[in-house]
Amino acid sequence: DGGITQSPKYLFRKEGQNVTLSCEQNLNHDAMYWYRQDPGQGLRLIYYSQIVNDFQKGDIAEGYSVSREKKESFPLTVTSAQKNPTAFYLCASTLNRGSEAFFGQGTRLTVV
Amino acid sequence: AQSVTQLDSQVPVFEEAPVELRCNYSSSVSVYLFWYVQYPNQGLQLLLKYLSGSTLVKGINGFEAEFNKSQTSFHLRKPSVHISDTAEYFCAVSDPIPYGGATNKLIFGTGTLLAVQP
Fold first, then answer.
1. Quick one: which of A23, A56, A75, B68 has the most CB atoms within 10 Å?
2. Touching check for B106 and chain A: CB below 8 Å?
3. Model confidence band, residue A83 (pLDDT cutoffs 50, 70, 90)
4. Beta bridge mates, B78
């Protein structure tokens, strides 16, 4: 079955550490996205990528970085510069404009 | 700029009762509209979408929504809810700015928790 796989499901980070969240899709979608979800705030766009080797900042990109070396993969790194990283992170992809976004199951990141 | 407003953060309802979850958006151009459902600790699943055509859109699990351009609304309805409908529901609008290609930047509302009680 086609879909989006995020790993790990739960992740714990110590203060000052960088961590990388994985996102893989086998839907053959060109566009991929990372959203952050906090209680009562809906989903906010961190980064998105239209094609391989290209990505754009979203609304809350500070403290995050991404890469898009393969069409199937769009990993997100939460750097130590992100002051409040505890949140639920969702990866998504779309086939084209007007099509719905397909979401992964999410990664819950907690700073300890 | 695009924005989406979901006025109700939580909607309690008894099982088998009808429900309406409200969504209003702001936009000066034509938009695509979506409703998603999220169960605890899971990703989002598409309920339905409006791209063009008939203003009444039917989705999965018995949900439907009506696009009202004059009121800039896209309210979600279900005539009879079940316990299993308890979840958070998000309304989203696509950003019409031409990012090009396959990009479909979505602007989400803050969500409405539908709490179905027996």
1. A23
2. yes
3. confident
4. B19
User: Which residues have a Cβ under 8 Å from the Cβ of B53 and sit 6 or more positions away?
Assistant: none
Whether the predicted pLDDT of B51 surpasses 90: no
A98 vs B32, B44, B90: nearest CB: B32
Q: What is the pLDDT of residue A16?
A: 86
Tallying the residues shown for chain A, one arrives at 112
Buried residues in A60-87 as b, exposed as e (16+ CB within 10 A) = ebeebbbbbeeebebbbebeeebeebeb
Return the structure tokens found at B31: 């938009």
Chain A hits for B111, CB-CB cut-off 8 Å, are 40, 42
Are the beta carbons of B94 and A97 separated by less than 8 Å?
yes
For residue A103, the chain B residues in CB contact (below 8 A) are 36, 43-45
Report d(CA A63, CA A44) in Å as an integer: 14
For B67, other C-beta atoms within 10 Å of its C-beta total: 19
pLDDT: which is higher, A2 or B91: B91
